[in-house]
Specification:
It is globular and about 55 Å long. Helix 3 (about 90-105) packs antiparallel against helix 4 (about 115-135). The relative contact order is 0.10. The protein has helices at about 50-55, 60-80, 90-105, 115-135, 145-150; strands at about 10-15, 20-25, 30. With about 160 residues, the protein is mostly helical.
């Protein structure tokens, strides 16, 4: 991929005719041969007008899902669920991220369909259970991260 920010997510968008990669950079769809921060011909400054226009075209559901996936990924890293294991483990940070994810999913339940919400809720529950397992002194049921929004989580 072109030399864009490390905060990019790639996935595939299916259409009736083709399968093409979708690059989410700042939550905007950008063709791979174009850079959203490409300098304009006159002064070498980023084309902020084009970037604003790109993000304006992104549906709200995609923004919500992208933020939720980023929160899930960050929480997994802070729980030590990556290949590096405990190198980045920080349960205090994981608690905050899981709580924020639960709040986002709770607030957006009427805005996103079950198709999008169900896997996010499953991921949230997995993170909540992983947090309980990683804690030296597990929270009481109903008192864990995000359980204010989801209710008590049991394995």
């Amino acid at each position: 991929m072109s030399g864009r920010s490390s905060h990019k997510v790639s996935r595939t968008r299916r259409s009736a005719r083709t399968v093409r990669p979708l690059i989410v950079w700042g939550m905007s769809e950008t063709p791979q041969n174009e850079s959203p921060t490409a300098a304009d011909a006159s002064g070498g400054t980023p084309d902020f007008e084009a970037m604003t226009r790109d993000i304006a075209e992104v549906p709200a559901v995609e923004v919500i899902v992208t933020v939720a996936v980023n929160l899930m990924s960050a929480a997994a890293v802070k729980l030590g669920l990556t290949e590096e294991g405990d190198a980045h483990k920080d349960l205090d940070e994981a608690r905050k991220l899981i709580h924020a994810l639960a709040g986002l999913l709770d607030a957006s339940t009427t805005e996103i369909s079950s198709f999008h919400a169900a896997p996010l809720r499953d991921g949230l529950k997995s993170l909540q259970l992983a947090f309980r397992e990683a804690s030296f002194v597990p929270d009481e049921p109903g008192q864990g991260p995000g359980e204010k929004y989801t209710g008590a989580v049991y394995g």
